[in-house]
């Protein structure tokens, strides 16, 4: 994913609110969210090239999500696919601190990454640009292709809109959150980061919703988990990075019992 906005215990109805956009090259083969045949407890999309994923949740409440850390000069040619960081955690659902410890030891095998992992009650953040995992407490967080809460324009804009929505008296719905994720506002050049991809690409990548001829926002997800552990996972997949043209799937589950609403 390339933008994640996260609320932990900041809403009276929902313990966890997760939303994010997955930006990717349009020609990369991808399966939309589904329960995996080889791991029926995992609900996730799938990268059909490497067989990993960028975001997933299990019927036991395990959750993991990934963003790449944008640093083209540090890219390794033979690194393990970062999508396995998510899928391996979801398959094993072991002790998150132990998983973090193993990742710290083996992080050199991957290109630079940011990983959120844990479950609907407790999440951790780990990057191989840092030495220790962070435990996420009550709050609102934003993550793009730098470290957690780095104030890139899309992170700042997304968090402001998210906080306004959380404090509003209107009922919180997935539709309202998808509106935040569909924002195509272009920041001014002076606010753009310099990550080594050149100004033209910095401009393309800067909005919350990214669109270009070859690369852009392929899908968005909104996940709501209430205090009785009922979860609603909604994914939109877009036609040619157009936020108004999409297919939508919604899954509902409460840890053990799951079904897809059609």
How many helices in DSSP terms? 5
- Sequence stretches where pLDDT stays below 50 over 5 or more residues: none
Radius of gyration: 17 Å
Distance between the amino and carboxyl termini: 25 Å
Number of domains: 1
**What is the global morphology?**
globular
State mean pLDDT (0 to 100 scale): 94
Order of helices and strands: EEEEEEHHEEEEHHHEEEE
Specify the CATH architecture: 4-Layer Sandwich
* CATH domain class: Alpha Beta
Q: How does this model look, in words?
A:
With 262 residues, the chain is an alpha+beta fold. Helices cover 19% and strands 39% of the residues.
Short overview:
Helices cover 19% and strands 39% of the residues. The protein is an alpha+beta fold.
Give the helices and strands, then pairings:
Elements: E1 3-8, E2 14-25, E3 30-36, E4 39-47, E5 55-58, E6 62-68, H1 83-92, H2 96-106, E7 113-119, E8 123-127, E9 134-136, E10 139-143, H3 153-167, H4 174-181, H5 199-205, E11 215-226, E12 231-239, E13 242-253, E14 258-261
Antiparallel strand pairs: 1-2, 1-10, 2-11, 3-4, 4-5, 5-6, 6-7, 7-8, 8-9, 11-12, 12-13, 13-14
Pick out its properties.
Penicillin V Acylase, Chain A; seven-stranded antiparallel sheet; 262 residues; 19% helix; alpha+beta
